[in-house]
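User: I'm writing a short report section on ligand binding and want a predicted complex to refer to. Could you take this sequence and zinc ion and write out the structure as tokens? A short remark afterwards would be nice.
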Amino acid sequence: MSSRSVAVQAIEAAIGRVREDKMSRLEKLANEIKYVIADFCGPNDVKNLSLTGPVMYTVIKPRETEMSTKHVINTIGIDLLPLAVARHRAQRTGWRISGYNQGPDKMDRDINRFIDEYLRPGLVPRSAITYNFNFTAAQDILEFHNAAVYYARTLAEKAVKCGPRAIRKDSGRYSALQGSRRMEVPDYVLNISPTEDKRFKEAMYIFETACALFPDELSASLPMRSVMVRFFRSFAPWVNQQVRCIQSMLENHLYFMVSVDNSMAVKLRGQPTWGPGRSMLSRFVIRQDLATIYRLDVGANLLEHLQVVEAQRGILQRYREESWLPIQDEAWLLRNPHTNNWSLEVDHIANKYRESDEGPMAAWYRTLLDRNIDDVVLNGSESIVACETCLTKWGFVFWDCQKLDWHSDNRLVSYEQMAILATGVSVDNIDLRRNTWGRGRGLCDCERPWSERFERSSGYYC
Ligand SMILES: [Zn+2]
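Assistant: Sure. The structure tokens for the complex follow:
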């Protein structure tokens, strides 16, 4: 007899022994009422409820998948579900913690299969009835979603204050300089719009999926480079930049939280405890899943946990420091077949990765053209796009057009204008890489408030 048959018989026998006068009030309720109660609970609570005894088990267990799936869809929403499934399946490979279990060639094949299954067709929203989650899968998906929502909001709210124009708060009112006068800041600049919030959430999911599939240094090496390019080409190039921003913002946030803990230690004991280096934090956020980081962060156990990781010397050594595609934009650009140079025309990208708002695409395109095209139309926004560190803190590729326009005083030109400038223009490999390098490590006093530098160059200060 199978173990399942034995279990079923044991439950039936247990139910037979349950006396109605010994039942709890919950167990005595009609099944329809029990289902209504279960609908208000998360998967973990329903699972625990089913384990309280044979009565609840027999009511809940047959509807496990239906209940869990409904809860996931109601919480996450159908649009985000393909990415939620991809993130969940990527994490379940175990590569993030245990490392790759095969050589590069076989891993390349496995990750290609993953992309085929979960990213290519999976990014097209499917009907709700095609999804099925058991309690355990639902719990993992919801725990991650909870953390992703928290960090999407936290990182967006920090970034929105780091734009080129300084925003000052006096007596609850927000103002900024316009010429020599102080003007009230519009709500659309201060608030995170639904489309911006969605971008932050999606980027959190893609960031975590990338960390789970490409955790090791090995994954960035030549045998596996093409599959990493293929993964990121499932998304737009500005999404690659969003993932880069997310990692940097998350590191900065954790660094800040650890600094707060250390400030407390100085107050209490007169000296700081230990603090992590930047390189350690880069590797840590690639190794550690977001739900755990969230628990450590809100539970104020982050510093303690990082000390434990530090004590396990070498544990982070094999991890990458970058979650994004390091060669940046070339993976999306086309080469001119005659000259072999990179074309700066990107209509094929704009058509393939359509966005509801032009902001992220235009912001990304402006950085691509920077230094590659010298034109008076672009000169007005040079000071804005000159430094990738400042752009990253601001999260330049997340914002809607109207927010970008306000911060740049309408000097970030439209996609259409840039497309005209780029018509027929191509650059060779060396120039493209040198110009990208220049943006990443340009002459910028990043420690000084960006707004101060920007306003002086723009004439905001009279
Ligand atoms: Zn800078």
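A remark for your report: Residues 336-458 form one domain. The chain has three domains: 23-75, 77-161+177-311, 336-458.
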